[in-house]
Amino acid sequence: MTATFLGDTVVIERAEERITIPLRVIRAIRAAEGRSRTVEITLADAVVHTIAANNPTAAATFVAAVAAVLPTPPDERGSALVRTEARPASSPLFSSRRTRFLFVVTVVTYVAYAGYLTVVHGPSTLFGAVFGLFPLSLGVVGAIQTARHLYDKAVLRRRGVIVQARTTGGFGKRSVYAFKDADGTSRKYRSRMNADVIEVAYDPVNPKRMASVTPLLLEIPRMILMTLFTALFVAVGVGAVFGPVLP
Fold first, then answer.
1. Closest C-alpha among 180, 232, 227, 238 to residue 207
2. How far apart are CA 227 and CA 223, in angstroms?
3. 3-class state of residue 185 by DSSP
4. Region 17-46: what's the mean pLDDT?
5. Cα angle vertex 120, ends 114, 123, to 5°?
6. Pairing of strands 9-13, 26-32
7. Has residue 101 got a pLDDT over 50?
8. Whole-number pLDDT of residue 20
9. In this model, does residue 34 exceed pLDDT 90?
10. Fewest CB within 10 angstroms: 4, 34, 114, 137, which?
11. Distance CA 133, CA 113 (A)
12. CA angle 176, 40, 80 (to 5 degrees)
C-alpha cells in the first residue's frame, strides 16, 4: 500500500483499489495511538482511513504535510466525495499455464538431448546425463533462492511496509513471529533470530513476500556459504550432464 499527497487530494493505493480523498473533506490526520507507523485520516463524517508508512519518520512527515493545509471547517459531505476505483489484479510472474508449458518444453528438450548423447556418444553417457541432474538442480535452486533472498532483503527494506512482529513460539530451529498487515490480515514470519520483537518488511502488493529488517552485512557469511554450495553443485552437474559435448 502507498499513499501520496498531491496538494488538494490524498491518494491511497492498495493492491486491489485506489482511493482518492479530497483534502477539503478531511477533519483530522494523525499517527495512530501506540502505532507510530500507522496514519489515521478522519473524514468530516467520522469515517477513518488508515495508511501504513514505512517508518515513524515517514508517517510523521506525511501527517505534518497534510495537517498544515487542512481546511477549516471541512466539507461535511465527507465520504460522499471520496472516489474508490478498483485496480486490476497484477498477474503473477508465471501463470500456471505458462509454468506447465515451460515444464513440458524443458522435459522434451532434455529427453531429446539425452537421446542425442546415447546415439552420438554411446549409451554410457546417459548415466551421467540422468544422475547429473540431481546436483545441477540443487545448484540452480540454491542460486535462485540466494538471489531471491538478497532481493527481498535489499528491496523490501527500502520499498516494503515495515512492521514489528512478536514471537509466538518455535518451529524447528526457527522462531515464529506474528504481525498484521495494513489490511488487518494476520501474517507469520519464520526466522533464525532469537528475539521477542523483530522488524519485518513485506511487499504491500504480495504480503506473502517478506524479509527481516537486519543489516545486509550480517548476510555476508550466509551468502559465502550459499555461493560455494551452488558453485560446487552446478560444476558437478554441468560436468556430468554436459561433459560429453563440452570442448
1. 180
2. 6
3. coil
4. 90
5. 60
6. unpaired
7. yes
8. 92
9. no
10. 34
11. 13
12. 125
